[in-house]
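Hi L.,

You mentioned the student needs an example of a multi-chain input paired with its predicted structure. This one should do, with 344 residues in total across all chains.
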Amino acid sequence: MGALFGIGGGMIIVPMLIIFYGLTAKDAAAISLVGIVATSVGASAVYVKKRISNIRLGLYLEITTVIGAIAGVAVATYISDTALTVMFSLVMIYSGTRMIFNPELVVEPGECSGKYCFTYYDEIQKKDLGYEIQNVKSGAAMCTVAGLVASMTGLGGGAIKVPIMNLHMHVPMKAATATSNYMIGITAFTGAVLYFAMGDISLVFAGAVAVGGFLGSMAGTKITSYVNGKSLRRYFSVLIFFIAAIMMMDAGGFF
Amino acid sequence: MSLNDTTSKTLWWGAAAGILVIVMGLALESLGMGEQVLWLGILMLIASPILSVAVSMVALIKEKDRKWAGVALTLIVMTVVATLISSLF
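Structure written out for the whole complex:
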């Protein structure tokens, strides 16, 4: 799942650890971070090699994401979890809707004249496709929010980063999910290393989750080769509707 | 080697080596002595993304792509700062 959609698997791992293994939320979040790194690194090694991930874009957006993550630690004291969760869900419902109805903007490789022209390799069409990144500065600013939410909720932030890249910056869906995947590992590193240094982590669970995440991500990268950008976009919007619904229920006290 | 190849290799070998050590650790743990091995494996795994950023930076410097090498350096500095700040909380 993580490898396919460019979002961390935290959404799935955290509830499973709590419900089936009776771990506390904090332990589960720490273990999930290790799992997220394993998933992200395994998948992005493949996507980076195939030139689907955009390393430059990833590095650039990651700077503001990290700033957001730092702010998140401080802000968490002032905003209630419920308000944040509701806000987060609304943003996802909005982007999910737009992803279904708005077509992708495509720029031909030869036509691009701006500073931020890139190509990615499309495995379905078996050729390099060009795209021009737009709204670079505002897109980077929006990634601060992704980092903020990621550090406050323990998620990878991919569910926000992919729509920012795809809708606002006009990065093709495949390149957006692959780049998000690459970034998630770096974001999760900061969180994971802290839990780890404090010795606040169950090593056996973390190890098992890491191995599972790594193997799962290998399978995910194989599947994406056969899915085209348009359907990936549609599946992604369904997934974020689902995540939004779960988070709304969580905020409403259903769990 | 190009930017993408070196970055991909770092990610792949970092993760694969980490996972291998974790698997050994899990096996040893069933005999009750895998703690340190697991610890090392997880550390190797979570360090590989940030290691890959350093490798990307070197590749960008070699390609004389100063602007993006600067971006990579900024990111490394920010990550270190982020880790230090959040360790205070």
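You could point out the following to them. The radius of gyration of chain A is 17 Å. The first strand of chain A starts at residue 117 and ends at 122.

Best wishes,
N.
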